Amino acid sequence: MSVAADSRPRSSSRRAVLALLVGGLWAVVACAPKVNAQRTPDYDLEAAKAYAWVTEDLVLIELGEDQPNVRTKDNERLIREAVNRELAARGFQLVPKEQAQVLVAFSVGVRVRYRVEGVDPSSITATGPGEPQTKGTLNIYLIDRATEAEVWHGWTSKWLHKGDDPAAVIDEAVRKIMAAYPNDAP
What we know:
Elements: H1 12-31, E1 35-39, E2 50-53, H2 59-62, H3 73-89, E3 93-94, E4 102-118, E5 126-144, E6 150-160, H4 166-179
Parallel strand pairs: 2-3, 2-4
Antiparallel strand pairs: 1-6, 4-5, 5-6
Helix pairs in contact: 3-4
């Protein structure tokens, strides 16, 4: 028995629309910031509700490579405020360091790349570097105060743009990272 092939002509415009939709969906998924988290399985994260910052020093300013648009006192303050809000929403209480169950720390990393601009799309001759593009990565750490061992770590990265509002970028990153934290708060 033979099966006849579909002899109806396929619409190239329908295929083009389908390709655009699939491509657009892929771009949204590929560009969405991915959040990662790791936890120490034998530590009872859900029981820890008292925290303190590992240090009151300005870690963004004093440690790491210079990055004047990212590593600022204002961004340090915004990160700490966002983390405090998210922890409070999960039932945590900020206490003096000696009373804390966990210590909170964070780090910010940046990666700068330059897209090489060519004469035309098929050219391997570069006319020079394009605009620098900066990717920021925010890491949030919870450390057991008694053992000084990391018990939870969450992080995300995002390509930053000149017009980005730092407060909005930081709030979104902290919110997404902390959404990966186990939550048993009322």
